Amino acid sequence: MTQRCLPPVVVKGKSGQSAKAGVCVALDNAFMTVTAPAECGRGACDTSGTWRMKRSGRDVASGEFGRRAGYPGPGTYEIITTLRVRSVPAGVDLRAERTARITLSWPRPKTTHRIDVSPRTVRAGRTTTVTYTVSRLGPDGDSNSRLGLIGTEGTGVRLTSSDPQCSNPLSGAYPSTARHPYVLNCDLVNLQPGRPNVVKVRVRMGKVCSPVVSKMGYWLPKGQEAYTGNMLVGPTVGCVKG
Prior knowledge:
Layout: E1 2-12, E2 18-28, E3 31-35, E4 38-40, E5 43-55, E6 58-64, E7 68-70, E8 75-86, E9 93-104, E10 113-118, E11 121-123, E12 127-136, E13 145-150, E14 158-160, E15 166-167, E16 183-188, E17 197-204, E18 213-219, E19 229-233, E20 238-240
Parallel strand pairs: 11-20
Antiparallel strand pairs: 1-2, 2-3, 2-4, 3-7, 4-5, 5-6, 5-8, 8-9, 10-12, 12-17, 13-16, 13-18, 14-17, 15-16, 18-19
């Protein structure tokens, strides 16, 4: 993992309390994680909150501290952090906002997989066959991957497929056989460069619209290293009324 940190600065809360807080961006494959290490007096303290990253005045990434987000590539960014800083034991508890500039020089990792979908929009109250095409673009990785699709719980959306690679996950403890109808997982095992895997999914939309989000996990083995997997955010199928 590669990391770039800005030096800590003093941040002050409305109550007059202060602490020193920095900003760090760490790169892990195609993802980055933003953190805000802080010092309260002579000791460390806890931070939580959110961040936004802008380039040329446009938002390019955002998230919560400590959670992964897609890496937008090399460049100089304005990063806006909304912090809550607390010391343990209690003593400092403040909220503050910091804006800083950070330059990231890491190249964007090459794309190893791609997800295409057709159509990109379905209609409420109808059943539509949606075709997902998963492609492996080069020799990195292996032929196994897991495509996950999810609609919004409680809207009545149902995702099904006659493809034996796909199933709705179980929702309860054994021996329950109940399944989540709005979630579909497809275990793809024959994914090779030049041989895309095509999965047809029946999306039955209720009267209430729900987007259908997709993502895929895949393995990038490096010997016996354990943490070499990756996730790819796929296209979202939108919904329109009637």
